[in-house]
Amino acid sequence: MATVIEPTIFELSTPGRRGVKMPASDVPTTALPPNHLLRSDLPLPELAEVDVVRHYMKLSKFNYSVDDGFYPLGSCTMKYNPKINEDTCRYTGFLYTHPLQPIETVQGNLALMFEMQEWLKEISGFPGVTLQPAAGAHGEFTGVLMMAAYHKSRGDLKRTKMLIPDAAHGTNPASVGMLGFTVITIPSDSRGNVDLKALEAACDDTIVGMMLTNPNTLGMFDENIEKVVQMVKDCGGLMYGDGANLNALLGIVRPGDLGFDVMHFNLHKTFSVPHGGGGPGSGPVGVSQRLVDFLPSPLVGIVEEDDDDTAPLYGFVTPKNSIGRMKAFHGHFGGGLVRAYTYIAMHGPDGLKDISQYAVLNANYLQARLRNTYHVPYDRICMHEFVMEGQFEGSDIRALDIAKRLMDYNFHPPTNYFPLIVHEALMIEPTETENKDTLDRFADALIKIADEAKREPELLHEAPHITPFGRMDEVKAARELVLCCWLPENYETMA
Amino acid sequence: MTYIPISPAERDAMLKTVGVKSLDDLFDAIPKNHRFPELNLPPALTEMEAAAHLGEMASSNENVREHLVSFLGAGAYHHYVPAVVDHMLRRGEFYTAYTPYQPEISQGTLQAIFEYQSLMATLTGMELSNASHYDGATATAEAVNLAYAQFRGKRKKIVMSPTVHPQYREVIRTYSQGMGLEEAGDEPTSSELSPEALTSLIDESTMLVVVQYPDFFGRIHDYTKLIEDAHAKGALVCIVANPTALLMLKTPGEMGADIVVGEAQPFGIPLWYGGPYLGFFTTKKSYVHKMAGRLVGETVDSRGQRAYVLTLTAREQHIKRERATSNICTNQGLLALAAAVYMSTLGKSGLQEVANLCYQKAHYAASELSKIDGFGLCYPDPFFHEFVLCTPKPASEVNQYLLDNGILGGYDLGKDYPDMQNHLLVAVTEMNSKDEIDTLVEILQEMK
Amino acid sequence: MNTPSNLQYAKSDEWFDPATGAVGISDYAQNQLSDIVFVELLVDEGEEVTVGKAIASVESVKASSEIYAPAAGKVSAVNKGLSDKPETLNSDPYGEGWMIKIEGGAAGDVMDAAAYEKYCEGRSH
């Protein structure tokens, strides 16, 4: 039997205990629906409020978070989440407005969304933006749908292939798969750029376009970016930019200016919306002129212009050839847009440029401090992140062991085993919100771990040691598949 | 430099270590003609100014707590959220963590999701739940993805009730653009609305039947027979359910549903002008490998302690890439936590009280409203906390009149169903007092 | 690495038994995939398959892979019990772990055991 550190909320339940009570009914009683329409039992937990609080407090302490310490998870941009955002997004006027209220009653919300669209256009260089997508992958799917709709509207139906570099995030091919397109993988060259010869060979009139993350997942800005875009466009393809790495580009370069046609933003990475233990995110999408008519509906627009006496009236508009609706209502307004709006408003143009400059400085500083200890396969000035190998000549230590050992030094490990084109990859993204002392301590820890790998490899193989939990039996989890701590009584018969 | 903790001296030292002279020198790889664009954005605000500016924007809205009495639902509901919920969400350990890829230091998130999964499976009467989707609409679209993957594209027809939320149907149409699906039933006419009418549309090529419970008009149908008929043709059935109603009503699991999805916003998540919300997705064990989304399973760690991990990850996009059922990566982690804390804090009895208050107040409102001259309930069917009121004037005019009197009326069904201009969808929850309901009735009595 | 000499092997790591028409994945493949937790057969009995057609999808704790027909012909049997015991692919890839049988199967581009072993060794680095 396994030791139970903290019981589940079901195990903590005792029949008859009460938490928060509801008021008594103030209306005459109506009979309930007939019995055959009612559930027989509601086997949910019964606890006192204090026990609920202590349970979740205890769980919270099992987590490592940005508020606890350094979280250099590559491609995830785990920057500090300003506390003011947590307040603004909970202002009464935002919390208690219904998504279907008449537009006249929610002009504050609509003005915020309208400005947010305008700001994101300005930051990215795209003439159109939708705020609707719920997350990066959702924005990506939105973008690919628009690319498909564009070609279809031109009667160009033979385009069924999408070019995707080998270093891409898994969401890129998965988004393409959802539309039934074929993925053509394009290799990277020795400097971490798109291999132009391979690209030339793949470009023809059957491509939908190309999905490119730039800077890519190696942290490299493609040195031939304008050529790449031109080659894709010359054969009638559209250029998709994965905005996962936008934290490197604010005020540095605008993807729209480089000729991209679509890009999704990750408000939860670049614009400090907290990651929430895996969501909610927010994934607005920007598009070039030839795609603006295909944006999802609705967008926020001005439905009555302002004059000397009155402010403009904001409302919803539907693009002419819209691909349709991507989710119910208007996007992740409260938890996403209000937080990101607060963040952008507090930075302004110079502050945004500072973000990217210091994100890139911090990454390069760490790379410089570590390159003599760990092999950096693509060793040039990086952008906001870099990738090194978590392995040593003649040692059986792997990236996973180094990652787990970092926990003993009270750091969150970097992303490991991604991108796939680097052996035993450790992908490090420090972000701009870390000071030099933290970066030095992290570099010192990694250098010490490299030394431990030589002298006491067991220390790494068995890590982590100081965390409340050790390494997990993932095979047991997948084979036995216990997904539920409470089964309905009729579980046996439901098969 | 708002959140950048590096001093000028430190910056210079770091630049020296890197081997460049200035910050600008780090960007030589960027095409020169596009490097360092001037961004036309408003100048930076301090925290104090930002708080004031956002405060002004927020207070220029009319909200349902201070200005308007609301009877509007249609997919988003105004419920009481116990104080504990937001206090737990404000724990930095929860909200500033990422997806629990490193289980040794993410057991808080993992166990909370495991409990959420357990709570939702219990609520719906299904065998398992995933870690959640973006919202109710996209969860429904993921049910279509599951069915498509389950039949490996060999069945391509979905039968969709016209009384599934109109926006959910729209999202399914958007999502399925590349699948070449045949869609039946999805017509905004008021004629064929009963579950019986749907049965005739199900055939051997049908992969999925989608119905809502209670339906978009608030009516409670027992779908047991429809599900039997669908299963006889080999099709799967997805029920889009309201979680508050499930606290009282027969579970979709008991009816034999294959997939139960819905919007869990009513469970501890504010209206927030439409998001972020919480799509729940529950199903049977036999479909788990075709289900999209994150999944937490129980295991043990190297020290013999019970623990939790993300499991069956090879189904997902980062491994299966273009062959994955969906491209989804994140769930709505923090909001799944909100729902779990909501359900735990109210507990079995508190939740039953919420459901009962919604039911009682809605029925009181329906009974009083239908006494007004020219008004009446459009359908005789049983309902839970939402019902369709037939109005003597177009519902849009009724709503305008109510708004002028400080009331956010119901949802004008004429917007989505052209034949239903005089149909108002009214929602009543525990937040509506008897006084508010009586005021609504009085105002409508006076409407000319 | 176990590589029975009576079988033929495809570059994509399937084995084919010319005597019985049986198809499965090699010991090398199951070892690379590690702990297999899910297998779905993508073809039905009576179906015609061509060389290279995806006949099964396999998922392990860490990886996912499609399995392709190493021979062309008519599917005469499928191992229906496999989906309940996917771990059989790890424990007995050449026995209980067979996936389908292809009647009158004409093998595509396959290697003998010795060539396959050499091919696998070449990939280990």
Write a structural description.
The complex is a heterotrimer of chains A (495), B (448) and C (125). Chain A has 495 residues and is of the alpha/beta class. Chain A folds into two domains: 87-345, Type I PLP-dependent aspartate aminotransferase-like (Major domain) (Aspartate Aminotransferase, domain 2); 349-467, Alpha-Beta Complex (Aspartate Aminotransferase, domain 1). Chain A contains 15 helices and twelve strands. Chain A has a seven-stranded mixed sheet, sandwiched between helices. A three-stranded antiparallel sheet of chain A has the order 10-12-11, covered by helices on one side. In chain A, helix 5 (136-153) crosses helix 6 (171-177). The longest helix of chain A has 23 residues, at 348-370. Chain A starts with 48 loop residues before the first helix and ends with a helix. The model of chain A is unreliable at 488-495 (pLDDT under 50). The model of chain B has no long low-confidence stretch (mean pLDDT 95). Chain B is globular, with a radius of gyration of 25 Å. With 448 residues, chain B is of the alpha/beta class. Chain B has 15 helices and 15 strands. Chain B has two domains: 69-81 and 347-446, Aspartate Aminotransferase, domain 1; 84-341, Aspartate Aminotransferase, domain 2, CATH 3.40.640. With 125 residues, chain C is an alpha+beta fold. Chain C has three helices and ten strands, in the order βββαβββββαββα. Chain C is globular. Chain C starts with 7 loop residues before the first strand and ends with a helix. The relative contact order of chain C is 0.27. The B-C interface holds B 152, 289, 312-315, 319-320, 323 and C 37-38, 40, 42, 57, 59-64, 66.
Condensed summary:
The complex is a heterotrimer of chains A (495), B (448) and C (125). Chain A is α/β, with parallel strands linked by helices. Helices cover 33% and strands 11% of the residues of chain A.
